[in-house]
Amino acid sequence: MQPSMAVAKVAPPGVGKLPRRAFGDHAFKVLAFGMALSVLVLIVLTGYELAHGSELALHKFGWRFLISSDWDPVQEQFGALPFIFGTLVSSAIALCIAVPISIATAVYLTELAPGWLRQVLSLFIELLAAVPSVILGLWGIFVMVPWLREHFFPWLRKAFGSLPLFSGPIYGVSLLAGGIIIAIMIIPIITSVSREILRSVPGLQREAAYALGATRWEVTRIAVLSYAKRGLFGAVILGLGRALGETMAVTMVIGNRPEIAKSLFAPGYTLASVVANEFAEATSNLYLSSLFELGLVLLGVTVLVNAAAQLLLKTFAEPTAK
What we know:
The protein is 73% helix and 1% strand. By secondary structure, the chain is mainly alpha-helical.
């Protein structure tokens, strides 16, 4: 008989480390959840502080504050409607200008531009994004607004003067000037994000389209843009968020007049601009509280617009998913 041999039991590799790994995974999960939750906490705290600061105006004006056009600090009559109008109109103008330029630029950089030119254009786009808003505002006052007043706006009125949007006297500083300066500021953001999204489209998408005999334009339109449309929409939403909250550059070129006008040549005012302009001049508690409420309204407008955009995105995406 063979002598019996003791068989040593060897634990599988890594078994002893399982508790440590489980602790590390759990700690990472908790930490990541805490970081994500902090964003929601910041928004809630910001809303709470704005609501607390605007308590006096909320009690005095109620919902009339949102639909009133009066802004008279002397008589202590305040309403947010002209500022909501100015914010939404200037942001809409900015998107109408910036979105086609940004997406076309991103498509060119991703699909068409040679390597050396791609690097140069990308550098200039990043430099434009780094320009402070106050510098763009000064450029807008001394360069853009005079040129718009003397050349572009008269041409627009001559060509489209039959439309209410392009009628009336030309001042230079206007809603349209504000929208143009915002467009200049959000073009680098939308372009950079869109370029990264287009670069992430799998190469198999393009190769399959080319294999079917598609032209370069058809490959870009069907295989690339169609695949990346949700991401591009997200890039536009990021640009919209910047447009709604832009302050200094818009303050310098929009005219700062609290009125609702049909013409885009008329001066306007935005929620962020009036807070920046008049916060240091608030001489009464009600005046200061009304400015706080304008900040609360701006936060609410931003949240509602982004929520509506996400809902719209889901509506468009559902038929594709099915």
